[in-house]
Specification:
alpha/beta; eight-stranded parallel β-sheet; 8 strands; binds D-xylitol-5-phosphate; binds zinc ion
Length: 216
């Protein structure tokens, strides 16, 4: 069954502790932490201090998505703050391979994310160093954007490239009850969802509905 990673970006930050509890009780498989620096993307979200503060509140895996420039320099901060998975952007790195090795040395699982305009082919040299590939289906920076249908063939292509390697495909951006099936059919293992999980504050109903999709 597909896993659901609610994006904390859509939470009410005045009530972060209770929001996280509710997501855990609602059946979230992990917590997706969108870190934005106002440089790699035109938005600023939250940082290491927030991750540290929420770490003791839950057993959920912390799936940290770094939308920051030069993530290589900051990997240790995010590992020490309590991340389980650290995903960096292909477009933001100068030496991706050493960054991935560093993430593993810090005891975390390593992911790479690619923007909509980036081809899947760039991932080929790194497949043996990856635990996760995060395919962006919106331009990174903001929640609530429209899903980009034209990214579906890329997901299928990545699925083929992975072959029998133990790499999960995560898809992020515009996932909702209409778009989930296509993404699962294309090969997604994990769906990130902000708007769709938090809508009407019906976390359990929304997560259950997203998980129900079997693909077309
Ligand atoms: C976008 C973020 C996403 C986003 C998802 O830059 O990486 O995780 O918050 O939000 P929705 O599900 O609303 O598209
Ligand atoms: Zn994300």
């Amino acid at each position: 069954m597909v896993k659901i990673a609610p994006s904390l970006l859509s939470a009410n930050f005045a009530y972060l502790a209770s929001e996280i509890k509710l997501l855990e009780e609602a059946g979230a498989d992990m917590l997706h932490l969108d870190i934005m620096d106002g440089c790699f993307v035109p938005n600023i979200s939250f940082g290491v201090g927030t991750i540290k503060s929420i770490r003791p509140l839950t057993e959920l895996l912390f799936d940290t998505h770094l939308m920051i420039s030069s993530p290589e320099d900051k990997l240790e901060w995010f590992a020490k703050a309590g991340s389980d998975i650290i995903t960096i952007h292909y477009e933001a790195c100068t030496d991706l391979l050493s960054a991935l090795k560093r993430i593993h040395n810090l005891g975390c699982r390593a992911g790479v994310s690619i923007n909509p305009e980036t081809s899947a082919e760039v991932l080929s040299p790194f497949l043996d160093y990856l635990d996760m590939i995060l395919v962006m289906t919106v331009k990174p920076g903001f929640g609530g954007q429209k899903f980009m249908e034209d990214q579906l063939p890329k997901i299928s292509h990545i699925k083929n490239m992975i072959g029998d390697r133990n790499i999960e495909i995560e898809v992020d951006g515009g996932i909702n009850f209409d778009t989930a099936s296509g993404v699962i059919s294309a090969g997604a293992d994990i769906l990130v969802a902000g708007t769709a999980v938090f809508q009407n504050k019906e976390y359990k109903k929304n997560i259950t509905n997203l998980k129900k999709h079997k693909g077309e």
